[in-house]
Each structure stands twice: as C-alpha cells, then as structure tokens.
C-alpha cells in the first residue's frame, strides 16, 4: 500500500508534529508499507533528516523556498497533485498552511482517501491564538477539508473531546504517537550526561526538555523551582533547561532565573540530541512540563521510557494517561501547586521508585512505534476499502 505523508516542515527543531511524523513514517516503512513524504521548506531544504528517511526506502519531495505565513510556492499545487495521485491514502499533518490545503484538494479531486492530524491546532487554546485569522481560514477552506476527510487523527482522547464543539463531520481516530524503543532498550551509563557538565556534580536534576517557547510554562517552572530550591527535600537540586530556543525566548527565561536569584541553580544546555538526550532523561530525578497547551507531549513518553517520573500540567493532553498509570503528577497551570508537587515528588523516594517501576512497562505496552504502525497499516487498509 502506498502511503503519502504531508507536512509543512521536516526540521526536527520545529516541534512535536515533525518528530511524530518521522517516527511514524520510519515505522510504517519497516512494516512493509510504501511510504513517501511531501514537505516544504522556508529557507533551505533539510538534508540530514531526508537522508535518514531515504536510507529506509522512503521517498521525500521538498518544495521551496516558500513565501508568506501560509508557505506558498508556485510549484506546490502541481507537486501535491502528482504525489497524491500516486498514493492509495494520504496522511496530512496539521491543516492551516498551503501544503495541507493543496494536498486535501488534490485528494478530493483524485478521490484518494485522506486523513488529517490536527496536531492540537483545533484545541480551544490554540484557536484563541491569532483568533481572527484562524476563523477566516476555517470558514474559507479548512472546515471543508476537515469535513471531507476519511478521518481525523487525534493522538489522545482528550484532544478528540476538546475538538467536539466544532461539530466536524469526519469520523475520529485516536492513535498515539510513539517512541523508538530500541533507543531506550539499554540506557547510557550513569554519569554520561553529567560528564559534559562538571558543575552538576552529583546534585539531583529536575529536568525541562522541550522548545523554549512561552506556551511551555517556563514562567511557572522557574518561580516554582525558586520557591522550593533551598528546601532540604530538594537536596540541592539543579533545574536543567534543555531544548532549542524559539524566537529568542531563552533570554527571557534567563531573565526570570536572574530575578529569582537562581542562575547558580539553573543550567541551560541548548539542544540535546542522541545519546546525550537519552542520558539526560535517564539521569534526571524528575521531568517537568507545565505547558499551557500540549497536544501530546512526545518528550513525556521519552522521559517515562528512560524510567523517569513526570509532572505535567492539566493542559498536557497526556495528563489522564499519566495519572491513570501512576507514573507522575498532574497540576494546574499555577506556580504554587507546581512547587508543592515538585517538592512532594523530590522528597518521597518511595513515590519515585513506584513510578519508575511502572514507567517503562507502560511505554512498552502503549507507545511502541512498531505496534502503532501495524495498527495504522490495518486502518489504512480499511479506509481504502471503504472509500
């Protein structure tokens, strides 16, 4: 079966949608599907990511450089038409930009069934950002594309429920993102990450690992950590803030740390990749993601795959699964509850040990990319048969 994935960026730094697409495409190729990817680029084409996909037999077509916020390019409509016509099913990731619209139009024209993964962009919080532009786009073309889809792919039941108020006509499919379990099978030796940052010594690590972006709740995390940093239960812990900067937001976060007198207790690492990323996840005592909106939270699953308990906000759509599995805590997007929850977890070794024992089995059972890809292989077949 020929599966075409459509996305607006193959840059790993662009966030969760791209990370999830890459994991899914690679797993589907290993499952025997004939996978291709259509994408655009703004400045320069991606090379490393494309080469890794092509090594697995995945065809990649990138169009660009694009112009404007919607990512327009004169060759895009023709490329989408040819790519869609050669596919049995199309999986579109996100929906606002020109590439998703052209792919949906081509699929409608060629009567090729297509799915749309909203990537959290239809959550109420997301719709309030640039509200009027999104209202216009929904009325102009996006609602029609959503309603004509063979299915809407949500990564959690929470995301599906949040979109219910829009009364879209397409059926809902809930299928999570996953992780490559081979990366987490044998964890790096303790100290692998610390060896790169001698100032850490043997101090416990409270970890934030994600894009440095205003929606990620760093304006909650830094003051919450400052409130409890000197409590005996923290054992002198360091807050490690890792991940790529987004539009210069790191400077603002550093300013928060300075204002709270925490620069000697906060370590900024920038982007962490490969073995060092997994080592950091494994060496942390606690992972914290207090986002104001998080459609899935791939890094939450990665942290659990490394055996590290998590604290997430109740706006992270994985929060129900985290709570039910007993692998972490859930808090509102407020400083005081976050501080108290971090202190509770850092001060209770038995609580952490219980979560650690459950974390890896929970991930292996529910978030193995290969199991998820096999399910998609079956779903695609059903969608094509019923088209």
| Uncertain stretches | none
Shape: globular
**In angstroms, what is the radius of gyration?**
21 Å
Structural class: alpha/beta
Side by side, the strands of the main sheet go: 3-2-1-4-5-6-7
Molecular structure report:
With 387 residues, the protein is of the alpha/beta class. It has 2 domains: 2-178 and 368-386, Glycogen Phosphorylase B (Rossmann fold, 3-Layer(aba) Sandwich); 182-366, Glycogen Phosphorylase B (Rossmann fold, 3-Layer(aba) Sandwich), CATH 3.40.50. 45% of the residues lie in helices and 16% in strands. The protein has helices at residues 16-30, 48-55, 76-85, 98-110, 124-128, 131-147, 157-163, 181-184, 218-228, 249-259, 274-283, 298-305, 319-325, 335-346, 349-366, 369-386, and strands spanning 2-7, 34-40, 59-63, 89-93, 114-117, 151-154, 172-174, 205-209, 238-242, 266-270, 286-289, 310-313, 328-331. The chain has a 7-stranded parallel beta sheet, with helices on both faces. Strands 10-9-8-11-12-13 form a 6-stranded parallel beta sheet, sandwiched between helices. Helix 1 (16-30) crosses helix 16 (369-386), helix 3 packs across helix 4 (98-110) and helix 12 (298-305) packs across helix 15 (349-366). The two termini are 14 Å apart. The mean pLDDT is 96.
Short recap of the structure:
With 387 residues, this protein is an alpha/beta fold. The chain is 45% helix and 16% strand. A 7-stranded parallel sheet has the order 3-2-1-4-5-6-7, with helices on both faces. A 6-stranded parallel sheet has the order 10-9-8-11-12-13, with helices on both faces.
């Amino acid at each position: 079966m020929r599966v075409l994935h459509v996305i607006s960026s193959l840059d790993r730094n662009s966030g969760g949608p791209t990370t999830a697409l890459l994991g899914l495409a690679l797993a589907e190729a290993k499952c025997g599907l004939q996978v291709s990817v259509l994408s655009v680029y703004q400045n320069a084409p991606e090379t490393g990511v494309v080469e890794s996909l092509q090594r697995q037999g995945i065809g990649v077509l990138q169009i660009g450089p694009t112009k404007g916020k919607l990512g327009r390019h004169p060759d895009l409509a023709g490329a989408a038409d040819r790519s869609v016509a050669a596919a049995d099913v199309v999986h579109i990731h996100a929906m606002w930009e020109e590439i998703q619209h052209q792919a949906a139009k081509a699929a409608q024209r060629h009567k090729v069934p297509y799915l749309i993964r909203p990537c959290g962009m239809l959550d109420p919080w997301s719709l309030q950002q640039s509200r009027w532009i999104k209202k216009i786009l929904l009325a102009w073309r996006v609602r029609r594309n959503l309603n004509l889809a063979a299915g809407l792919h949500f990564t959690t039941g929470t995301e599906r429920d949040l979109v219910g108020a829009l009364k879209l006509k397409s059926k809902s499919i809930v299928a999570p993102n996953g992780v490559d379990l081979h990366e987490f099978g044998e964890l790096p030796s303790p100290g692998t990450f610390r060896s790169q940052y001698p100032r850490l010594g043997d101090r416990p690590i409270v970890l934030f690992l994600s894009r440095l972006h205003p929606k990620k709740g760093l304006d909650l995390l830094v003051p919450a950590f400052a409130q409890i940093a000197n409590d005996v239960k923290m054992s002198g812990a360091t807050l490690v803030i890792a991940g790529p900067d987004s539009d210069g937001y790191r400077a603002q976060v550093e300013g928060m740390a300075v204002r709270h007198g925490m620069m000697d207790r906060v370590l900024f690492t920038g982007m962490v990749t490969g073995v060092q990323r997994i080592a950091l996840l494994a060496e942390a005592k606690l992972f914290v993601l207090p986002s104001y909106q998080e459609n899935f939270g791939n890094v939450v699953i990665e942290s659990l795959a490394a055996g590290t308990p998590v604290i997430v906000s109740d706006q992270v759509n994985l929060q129900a699964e985290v709570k039910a599995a007993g692998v972490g805590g859930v808090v509102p997007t407020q400083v005081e509850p976050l501080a108290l929850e971090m202190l509770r977890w850092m001060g209770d070794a038995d609580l952490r040990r219980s979560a650690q024992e459950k974390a890896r089995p929970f991930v292996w059972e529910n978030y193995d990319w290969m199991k998820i890809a096999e399910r998609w292989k079956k779903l695609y077949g059903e969608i094509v048969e019923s088209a």
